[in-house]
Amino acid sequence: MMTKRFIVTGGAGFIGSALVRHLVRDLEATVLVVDKLTYAGVPESLKEVGLDPAADIQSEVAALDFTAPRRLFFLKADICDVERMSAAFAAFHPDAVFHLAAESHVDRSIDGPGEFIRTNVTGTANLLQAALGYWRTLSADAQEAFRFQHISTDEVYGTLGETGFFTEKTPYSPHSPYSASKAASDHLVRAWADTYGLPTLITNCSNNYGPYHFPEKLIPLIILNCLDGKPLPVYGKGANVRDWLYVDDHVAALCLVNEKGAPGETYNVGGHNERTNLEVVQTVCRILDELRPRPDGSKYESLIAFVADRPGHDLRYAIDPTKLMTELGWKPARTFDTGIRETVQWYLDNDWWWRPIHEQKYAGQRLGTIKRN
Questions:
Q1: N or C, which end of the chain has less CB nearby within 10 Å?
Q2: Of these residues, 95, 155, 216, 320, which one is catalytic?
Q3: Residue 291 placed within a domain
Q4: Is the separation of the CB atoms in 227 and 266 below 8 Å?
């Protein structure tokens, strides 16, 4: 890649940590992770690229020695703190920013939308302002090479019927507080590009899955509930369709867009792996029947429990990634069948990572059950 120094916001989260691992391990880049370490921030996800959560996390920019011979630094900070963000830019001198810091769980946005507006909207605006101030100090060549890359979601487009796909031209129509906050942040990024000339990129991705996924999300929740013998909650009739994307395939797309994408452009990232939620749950059950049979010989599918649907639950998402594939040459390395098997096996092999979360942070309880009058 052309750029070698990256700020990654939300780098202790699911997609962010996968990106950081790739940048440090595979691309030998130098990375500054900026993460507030909310409930979903798990710095242990970066242990394999050298982070010591007990010693390496700093809360002040001045405490980080960016001249040290290492390639990973960690600043515990809130992106809403524009002064600290500006200080981080000035001290670290990034060539690009991957902005992934966000509140991301739809059910939690139903229970508490305010934090989603604060982080996803106000936080993005403050980070853009800090990046703009830093970008204006750069030489003309460095300004041209700099990128502010905003990672977003296909949920901003709303819902599809039984046919059709989201493209980069699809009008926005968000239906949850989460998707509305992400739509707002997308518009802010475009505004900073159009108004101030900041070289930005936006990617909108489909549902990610893979290792190190916080267990409030569907696939890890189902895996861990299976292992615990708990009911497997399926919203409504399980007919809602999502396009599933293995997280490392997403990371490869992000790096390709950062290297070759045209400033001001948007690229949709999807895996062409549409499945109903019920099909996803059934697939996980069948894999676990093979890899970790139940002691009594019963099938994991017997644990499926249909529960009341969540408010505003979009029927179907499906992305058309043609622009990314034809213009930049990306293609996913995994099908859903290969990726989901890898994912289930990872959870079986890595209870050191998920068990503390399961016992101390989130044990699988239902979220987002507020009723509309």
A1: C
A2: 155
A3: no
A4: no
